[in-house]
Amino acid sequence: MSPLFRPLALGIYTLFLLAGVVCALVLPTLSLFLAKEIGVRPFLVGVPFAGIALTSMLYNQVIGGWSDKLSDRRPLIAGFCLVGAVVCALLAYSRNYWIVASVVILLLSLALVSFSQMLAYSLDYAERNVPAERVPLFNAIVRAQIAIAWVAGPPAGFLLASYFGFTTMYLIAAGMFVFIGVMTLRLLPHLDSHPHHLDHIEKADVLPLTTGQKRALLLSVIGFSLMWGANNAYLISLPLHLKDGLGIGTEYVGWIMGTCAGLEIPFMLLAGHYAARVNIMNLVKLAGLAALVLYMGVYFASALWQFFALQIFNAMFIGILAGLGVSVIQDLMPGRSGAASALYTNTSHMGNLISSLLVAVVADVYGYHQVFVVNLLIIALAILAFGRVRVKNEGKL
């Protein structure tokens, strides 16, 4: 049986699907919760997102490297999921901004480490069972589960928040966190996470990085951070721009995001398939070009159908970025699955910090509409960074 479809691989896909659903319930609606349910100004909406970014980077960097020395990641994943359940239960009943902000910054960011550890587990599996040329496709399939979850997750989150309230939505999310933690221990077998214990992982794989690898890694981290920053600024600003600027109901935001998630899946799988044949940096830069079209279109769009139509470019952007990003970092850090997954996850957190500061400053002074103009500059800088990354041959760093 292909290692892409063995029972263990199917268990990994299932858990990523469930993780994607709970993230899609909680994260896209958080800005709306802060702005409308609690009633704070744009600057205070951005503060918790910036705090999540900073604490998540700290947690991931410390826990990611340390976790490579452990023999079993599963208790970590389950424990962090339990933290997520506690966070959602607190958000369900608190409407004090400073309590909510503190819980989100200190504890939600810790709960999100569960997803980077799930990613590390999947990289451990890939290193041991998947042929090297098929690893990008495996990673793309893993990420596609999150995209599938986001087809239904944001619409469900905004509908629950709109018609049943945030209390109900957060209690459902808390239950899902508990379920994911339990299923992690039941679905996934013990898998030695330390590459030194495996005969087919060569000793050279864990030698210090070369100067070229370090330079390519730095440029890639900068590029991915900028791209995720633009994406997160879009996610924060779009619901409020549509509601306040165009008078479009927030329930449609979920359907817009769900449409993008559905369209992302084929782009993720195609990116994974062609990564072994095509210069991988060209694919990443193609994602950047799609983002430029997206944000230009969103800035000038005024009708609901136009936002739906633009999701084809959003899907190309996120599909390639999410499908190939971890493969790029993994190629540059062989034999270090925990550290590689933590660093890749941290690019999204660094992006969150960029976007939080962007939204806090730009939206507070000029409004949410102008955020999309700044996104264009951010994506242009990301394309320049990736343009300076050199690859050895087709599809490989």
TrEMBL record:
The keyword S-adenosyl-L-methionine does not apply. It is found in: Cell membrane. CDD domains: MFS_Set. Its main location: membrane. Keywords: Cell membrane, Membrane, Sugar transport, Transmembrane, Transmembrane helix, Transport. Residues 4-394 form the Major facilitator superfamily (MFS) profile domain. The keyword Coiled coil does not apply. Signal peptide: none annotated. It is a multi-pass membrane protein. The chain crosses the membrane at residues 40-63, 75-93, 99-123, 170-188, 216-240, 252-271, 283-302, 308-329, 341-362, 368-387. It comes from the Bacteria. Belongs to the major facilitator superfamily. Set transporter family. This is Sugar efflux transporter SetB.
